[in-house]
Design goal:
The protein is an all-alpha fold and 317 residues long. It folds into two domains: 120 residues, Peroxidase, domain 1 (Orthogonal Bundle); 128 residues, Peroxidase, domain 2, CATH 1.10.420.10. Helices cover 41% and strands 2% of the residues. Strands 1-2 form a two-stranded antiparallel sheet. It is globular, with a radius of gyration of 19 Å.
Length: 317
């Protein structure tokens, strides 16, 4: 089902996570059109390609889970200095040009004012809403980081157990409910066959629906490497932010190991069942979890910088 109605408007006057200087409306006096500028860029891109929501959710998550939400994932590597951008699981991150476009317009309107980290957070929020997800306010005031180190890229694996994933999430300040909620971001997007090929190889994983395993086998063939063909993580409403991901898990149709593990582990299975049967409950939880995600280890005030070009530090040396 497509939840483009009954949108849940959540207002968070001040972020209750990370630095208290993040606040809704941070740019009201210094760049009052900041959020509307980003929104226009995202809306235009979404009209051309609805997969932008999945791409931005992934970019935002990968950025925040390394050094915090500091836009370090946007820095281009050079021949002398590598960066996070193409390290490990970041190699398939996309929509950097969308961020560039928004930043260029912001620099024209309000030079050296809106951080790249805030652009990512705002753009992701807007893309979620355009895909039918909840509408929520995002606190802003992040600053851009001064380090982009590929050796620090250590993200939760799609083949994790619930215990392994929970260790990774609790290290960033999230509890079990928030972890299960954020993994609900898999309601949009695809996974390359190399990430789940072991689950559909002979013999197939018994925790996966035989019909799904057969379908995925036809999609994937015998890919080599981690890329190649890909399959939608939500086989029902692939471009809509809704609770169908949890219904897929209930039907043994989780694509990645961690997806199906959520339905098998007694600690998380009750949450999967709850979200599967309560879309508004998922929407409320997802909005709150996204606000918290956007506040992980942020830098504010005089720390860091506000980049004029999201791909390079203001002083590369």
């Amino acid at each position: 089902m497509s939840p483009f109605f009954l949108l849940c408007l959540l207002v968070f006057p001040v972020a209750s996570f990370g630095d208290g200087r993040l606040k809704v409306g941070f740019y009201d006096s210094t760049c009052p059109n900041a959020e509307s500028i980003v929104q226009r860029v995202v809306r235009k891109r979404f009209a051309a390609d609805r997969s932008v929501t999945a791409a931005l959710l992934r970019m935002h998550f990968h950025d925040c889970f390394v050094r915090g939400c500091d836009a370090s994932i946007l820095i281009d590597p050079t021949k002398d200095k590598p960066s996070e951008k193409f390290a490990g699981p970041n190699g398939s991150i996309r929509e950097f040009k969308l961020i560039d476009k928004a930043k260029q317009l912001l620099e024209s309107s309000c030079p050296s004012t809106v951080s790249c980290a805030d652009v990512i957070a705002i753009a992701t929020r807007d893309a979620v809403h355009l895909a039918g997800g909840p509408r929520y306010n995002i606190p802003t005031g992040r600053r851009d980081g001064l380090i982009s180190d590929p050796s620090l890229v250590d993200l939760p694996s799609p083949s994790f157990t619930v215990s392994q994933a929970l260790d990774a999430f609790t290290a960033k300040g999230f509890n079990l409910t928030e972890m299960v909620t954020l993994l609900g971001g898999h309601t949009v997007g695809k996974a390359h066959c190399g990430l789940f090929l072991d689950r559909i190889s002979s013999p197939p994983d018994p925790t996966m629906s035989p019909a799904l395993a057969s379908k995925l086998g036809k999609i994937c063939g015998t890919p080599s490497g981690s890329l190649g063909p890909a399959a939608f993580l939500d086989q029902n409403t692939s471009f809509v932010v809704d609770n169908q991901y949890y219904n897929m898990i209930m039907e043994k149709k989780g694509i990645l190991k961690i997806d199906q593990e959520l339905g098998l582990d007694s600690r998380s299975s009750r949450l999967v069942a709850s979200f599967a049967g309560d879309e508004n409950g998922f929407r409320t939880s997802f909005a709150a979890a996204m606000v918290k995600l956007g506040s992980v280890d942020v830098i504010t005030g005089e720390e860091g910088e506000v980049r004029t070009n999201c791909r390079v530090f203001n002083n590369p040396n």
